[in-house]
Amino acid sequence: MGRTRAGLLSALSSPATTTDLACALGVTPSAVSQHLKALRDSGLVARERSGRSVLYLTTPLGERLL
Question: What is the pTM of this model?
Fold first, then answer.
């Protein structure tokens, strides 16, 4: 999975935006977006819209992996 993706999954203990995750992990928002896409494609992360923001959260499968 890799250190960055594992860190993202751990950081999603509560829903967060791409910008929030980038700040928390010290990486660029575009890097976070690329990693989140891979995590979404594998069913570990989901996204939902909240007003103008998109929040990412772990799926039940992602929680079991953690």
Answer: 0.88
CA distance 12 to 25: 11
Closest CA relative to residue 42, chosen from 12, 65, 14, 19: 65
**End-to-end Cα separation, the chain, in angstroms:** 12
Contact 45, 39 (CB under 8 A): yes
Q: What is the radius of gyration, based on Cα positions, of the chain?
A: 11
Q: How far apart are CA 44 and CA 60, in angstroms?
A: 8
Summarize the confidence of residues 1-29 as an average pLDDT. Answer: 91
Q: What is the DSSP letter of 16?
A: B
Residue type for position 34: Q
User: Quick one: 32 exposed, middle or buried, by C-beta within 10 A (0-12, 13-18, 19+)?
Assistant: buried
Tokens of 14: 């509560």
